[in-house]
């Protein structure tokens, strides 16, 4: 099988390209457009954003002449522009998912409910869908994957995001027959469960980032969501609710992931975890019972065993998304998907004391943060998935700081796509038996 680079070159030489539709022209989307403009065999032919100029600037900043950017919300005009070799900027996300000329849709909005709509529409229009929206994926990914499979298209997370990068290490080790003991990522900043857009504002201004996005990193929600995606792809679970959050350098990881009775820090194997001290990298802890394999690993300076670490010190976020686009289109393969179904859940926890009648806000906001549980534990508690939290969810009772919010604690004051799809997913999989995992979280 030819490498993706050579396959893309072949496409270009044959006079064809993979035509990409993008929704969301924020930092991630703009970076992806610029990266793809440097590539063979692929182009973002249409970009949607609620601010039309954001979509247009994604192209001009990538080197596309302004005269080649057609601004329209009209399907016929958009189709003609793409056929003429131009690109389209629009405010209509449905135009992206419905345009016949688009082969692969990318959701870069980061908003769970919007991502749900985009993925649903893309699959109904029989287009591959690449999600830069892990929050939507961990909430309704099993349903979307089942739909995509039935429609003959690919539903996938993205290369470059930590779950995708972790999955590459897992696939490599698993294919070689190693025992995979643990999978994880580094966390960029100390856990601060009280972080909110106000506390994150100063640092966000220095970094040119969104305070809300930064707060979602600081309060751990993003890490919990990312490792939930890995759990749903592999069947691995947290060693305990919320994971441990150990402090370590890369060299110390193999010892850390020994079982406690062997002098390590964990109770189980086949776990997901995050580590303070190794960001921005991702890792897989592997082992082997074979004497010759262990001898070779020692010879290769991989350590003394029995555990070894495979470590990738970078992930390029949306700059790597074109790899997932190409894999979906050329090889009909996903980079990462919830192959194991709903194995874990990121659930909503009160960030501060909340009052009866108060509305929740959203990920990275002032009211809640996310923590990871096994799917069974979340079901037993009737815990509210973090991806269902938005400003239309109202509390029916007062909630104390640190308390898990349940379905029974809230009322939804406005119907949303992601709530509707989550109900459909729960009904679809309610009778399905899950494989029993040794961790009882």
* CATH overall fold name of the largest domain: Rossmann fold
The CATH C-level class name of the largest domain: Alpha Beta
Q: Classify the secondary structure makeup into a structural class.
A: alpha/beta
* Level-2 CATH architecture of the largest domain: 3-Layer(aba) Sandwich
Overall mean pLDDT stands at 95
- Order of strands in the sheet with the most strands? 3-4-2-1-5-6-7
Under CATH, the homologous superfamily of the largest domain reads NAD(P)-binding Rossmann-like Domain
Low-confidence stretches: 433-441
Please report the number of helical segments.
16
| Largest sheet data | 7 strands, parallel
Described by its quaternary structure, the protein is single chain
Helix coverage percent of residues?
A: 25-40%
The percent range for strand residues is 15-25%
Work out the radius of gyration.
Answer: 22 Å
Shape: globular
How many strands in all?
Answer: 17
Number of domains: 3
Termini gap:
42 Å
Overall description:
This protein is an alpha/beta fold and 441 residues long. The chain folds into 3 domains: 169 residues, NAD(P)-binding Rossmann-like Domain (Rossmann fold, 3-Layer(aba) Sandwich), CATH 3.40.50; 156 residues, no CATH class; 86 residues, Alpha-Beta Complex (Type Iii Antifreeze Protein Isoform Hplc 12). The chain contains 16 helices and 17 strands. The strands form 4 sheets. It has a 7-stranded parallel beta sheet, sandwiched between helices. Strands 8, 9, 10, 11, 12 and 13 form a 6-stranded mixed beta sheet that branches. Strands 14-15 form a two-stranded antiparallel sheet. α2 links the parallel β1 and β2. α2 packs parallel to α3, α6 crosses α16 and α7 packs across α16. The chain is globular, with a radius of gyration of 22 Å. GO terms for molecular function: NADP binding; oxidoreductase activity. It holds the Pfam family NAD_binding_3. InterPro entries: Asp/hSer_DH_NAD-bd, DRL_cat, NAD(P)-bd_dom_sf, SAF.
